[in-house]
Amino acid sequence: MAFHGGRMVDARVSLQFAIDEQGYNCTVFGFPASYCRLVVGVRHQNTRIGRDGLALFALLLLVFTPIRAQVCVPGDLRVFITDSQESPVLGADVAILSDPAPLGQHATSSEGTVDFNRLPCGSWQVSASKDGFEPAMKTVNIVTGSRAEVRLTLHPKAQAASVDVAEDLPPVEQTASQKTELRPTEVKVLPTNPATVRDTLPLVPGVVRSPEGELKIDGNGEERSAMVVNQSDITDPATGKFGETVPIDAIETVSVLTTPFLAQYGRFTSAVVAVETKRGGDKWHAELNDPFPDFRIRSYHMVGIRDATPRFIMDGPLKHEKLYLTAAFTYFLHKDQNRTLPFPNNVSKKESVNSFTQLDWIIDTRQILTASVHVTPQHTNFVNPDYFDPQPVTPSYAQQNYVGAAAYHLGIAGGILDSSVSVQRFAVTVGAQGPADMALTPVGNRGNYFGEQTREARRQEWLENWSPATVRLGGTHLFRVGTSLTGSSDDGRFSYHPVNIADTAGVLLERIDFSAPPSFSRTDQEIAAYAQDHWNLTNSFAFDYGARIEHQRLADNLRIAPRAGFAWTPVTDQRTVLRAGWGQFYDHLPLDVYTFGRYPQRIISYYNPDGTLQGPPVPYVNVIGSSNGPRSFLIHGEQVAGAFSPRGAAWNVQAEHSFSRLLRVRADYTDNRSVGLIVFRPGISSEGVHEIVLQGDGTSRYRQFETTAKLAWRDDQQLVFSYTRSRAQGDLNSFDNFLGNFPLPIIQPVVYTNLPGDLPNRFLLWGRMDVHFWKLVAMPLLEYRNGFPYARYNVMQNYVGTPNTDATRFPNFFSADLRLMRDFRMNAKYSVRLSGSGFNLTNHFNALAVHNNTADPQCGIFFGNYQRRYRFDFDVLF
Known about the structure:
The chain has 3 helices and 54 strands. It is globular.
């Protein structure tokens, strides 16, 4: 609770269960009744609570005393075996080593997995070997009742001689394409309490969340990156955005690749987010996280629910060793407050369901059939309200998204054939709070949001990937080839209301009217093929090379994307690796680009101070232009309207060293130059017609130096530290600002400057460690970075000077968050997890908004801040 002058200012109360030391019986979760009692959880939101809040937190943790002596319950282990191209290895021998003989040994399936059940508690050595590959080994710790996972990478032998891998100094992966990998077991217990894949991504260097809630990857928007789940593209075909992502409880790994020199990846110029979902285990397992809602308390009165985010995961065998189920369900109700407005006029209400179900049928050791369904209905009222766009001006948003996929893995001739199909539907409705005109003024906007639309986009995708057996020819080769065939469509209708531009006194200066266009409908087909090879010339040098060919019907051109890189371990202990590579990448073109001709056309009128028209209204014609940027011999096609080919050429150098079993450090530099990007250019044609041209001549450049250190020790304890020095510059007016879900009403001239996601410096620290005090586990999360750049405007809503310069940035951002957690085993089946989290513990001022209009009397003042606050959680594991 927060107190000011002896009076409670704001608090957050949640109903939770805590452990009682006595042992009667209750029926809530089948526990003895006295295990359950009511505890008040409070979120602090005022600076002056300080010691009182911490004392309350400590008092609650003090009652978390053991009920009974801990008994070691055997745990389960799943082992994943992949090669240097991240493909599963079939038929590898995996053993759990003990003295004097192996505890167990099995061969991997076509998915590269092996399960070991009921392993005794303790530390075990996991070894993997296969003919033609170097052996690999890793240590894993089994704690009572745990479900551990370990991943080993097998590298092909360059010759008959083998390389001994030191047990305490594991080798660094010898591949040119490195990734940042996140695992749910590491990140879902962090203070941010991530519920989906997109919630985890800001933990990756180079990925941040903008003030509007969108992810910025390498300084660019989501539309310039690809997201694949089990190899299938799941981005919205209309906008290119990620949308709702898979629940974190159903995830095996999340990998972010900023420079993937493997040709299997396409449809991006910025980065790839590759998600792998998990298969059910050989023993039933379930978790119930955050089962109770959090209530909002103001002036000692309850004023409703603040949020409710119960998450449920269940997985296990429907038929032992044959059929497995994974089912994850999340209900999300969040009433988010924006601190630039007073309560209750600052609340955005979002309600959604996120359901993911997967079935895995192991036909035999060489055949596996996987089917999944992902359903994500969502509704948001008052999208991102703030001081300048209060609730009446904000849009509403609703979606009905469905993704169904099936994949068949066949082990044949020592290799693996992967076949998959997916069917996706993205239905979206964007509405306004009313029919009033939208009014833009220097001190804030009034009226209702101007853009309404309904659309339904669909995608059908068929993928074939073949990884043959290892080939020995001048070393060893791991080949991989594949094809994809995609069909997509986008149908819908727009309805735009007028937009008025006024001064601080409300005098009308400009009015934008819109035509009433008919509905739109677009279809597209894409085909792609690739071939790649990981070639181990020697034990210390590996070469990755390949090429990808893509054709998109609406763009009407053929694109060739060559890629190459190498990895070199200069010393025999394989603790150091040097990497470098270069590649050509192409953006996928969302269907919204080709519906621009059907967007409402603008008619602009200018007014004198006395309210009279300055002249006749000026109509602007929507024009889809061509790619007028530099040509490339890698692109074949006519330079006609709509023949866009946004592309980026990126190179990367990297050094990674494993100092010991505990510490690994990586440093790399990346340079990405993109041309042919799609931007809006307002102007006048040679015939004197006013036009808004969708032109393919935009440019951008992203440069990043990153260093990451990972300190890991026993029992999954680790600390990850990263520092990123980067620059993101390019042409503003990218198409995603004016097409898609929430278009901007004003189209500015094209300016080359810092991109909105440019952050020169960013420090990030997160991890998990045992406190050895009351058996607590601590999860810190600290971030320090520069503020986002912003633009300044005049009374006519035009740029003043150059936008987004270093001189116009938000103050530096710093947040120190911490979560303390402890698990209590009730019996062999049930466990309870109690935790408390603190956010912005230093109470640093992190501004949310700035008065950026020169006609605003408060121009230049930053305001809005989320103060120190606390949250207490209760989870059930069974």
